[in-house]
Amino acid sequence: MALDNHSTISEFILLGLSADPHIQALLFVLFLQIYLLTVTGNLMLLLVTRADSHLHTPMYFFLSHLSFLDMCFSSVTVPKLLENLLSQKKTISVKGCLAQVFFLFVSAATEVGLLAAMAYDRFAAICHPLVYGQVMNSLLCKGLACGSWGLGLFVALLNIFPAMNLDFCGDYIIPHYSCELPSLFPLSCSDVSSSFTVLLCSSLLGGLGTCFLIFYSYARIGSTILRIASSSGRRKAFSTCSSHLTAVLLYYGSAFLRYLMPTSGSPLELIFSVQYSVVSSLVNPLIYSLKNNEVKRAVKRILKKHLQ
């Protein structure tokens, strides 16, 4: 592989979130709890959507994919972060770093694809309720889910191949707690222009492209809701998409704040990065369970069935 032929250093040092041992101990406890809650929350939501027949609808089909993805997304960075918080030697191999970059791309691009698919589902449910079942049929749902995962894999492969040809022969310190492609560019002593161009184009395609689709869907949804005569009807229509809209604003907002900032390892950049790659995966199951009466009723039905 090009990685073995060109890299003159074998590992990077991840500076992490703090150099103070006492703060590192507190951060270890905090992120361990966040990780366990993320896995538990998303796993429970995944099992509930699978176990309750009332939730076998297109929206919860996509939600089950999102729950599985959020477990994967958090698992890409948090275990290594926990290891480094306890370790004196906070290193990651070049191959391990590029593997982390690859799976971050898969997770992030798949997530925006799923969020766009869920926005289209809400658009079909609110704007075309009479033909919703025909529009959001099983074949289309499976196609949109596979398309989302395919987008993630495509974006990841598109970015990782140029990155594997980069030479790393200068500084080997990453001012971050994980490996992200923009953090590797300053460490490379070879030309990064092609890799940067691919990153920029794929980000515009995956990020802004899906953002436009979501914005268009919600513009049509908003227009339809405003035409509903009764206030109770408007509230009911809006409540069906409020959870998804909250998740979209949280994810895209933190992602744009993270990547619009220059890569410097500043505290603010690290906060936005944690919000984007760690906290979003924790909050999603809370948003879809606490703000969703259907999920609450499904949990009660499952508990009642097993307690009888």
Multimeric state of these chains?
A: single chain
Helix-strand makeup class = mainly alpha
Mean pLDDT: 86
Task: Give helix % range.
Answer: over 70%
What's the arrangement of strands in the largest beta sheet? 2-1-3
Determine Rg (CA atoms, Å).
Answer: 21 Å
Strand tally: 3
Low-confidence stretches: 1-7
User: What global shape is seen?
Assistant: globular
Question: Can you write the helix and strand succession as a string?
Answer: HEHHEHHHEHHHHH
Query: What proportion strand?
Result: under 5%
Q: Describe the main β-sheet briefly.
A: 3 strands, mixed
Number of helices: 11
Terminal Cα span: 59 Å
Structural overview:
The protein has 308 residues and is mainly α. 77% of the residues lie in helices and 3% in strands. It is built from 11 helices and 3 strands. Strands 2-1-3 form a 3-stranded mixed β-sheet. α3 (58-86) runs antiparallel to α10 (267-290), α6 (138-164) packs antiparallel against α8 and α8 (193-226) runs antiparallel to α9. The radius of gyration is 21 Å and the shape is globular. Residues 1-7 have low confidence and may be disordered.
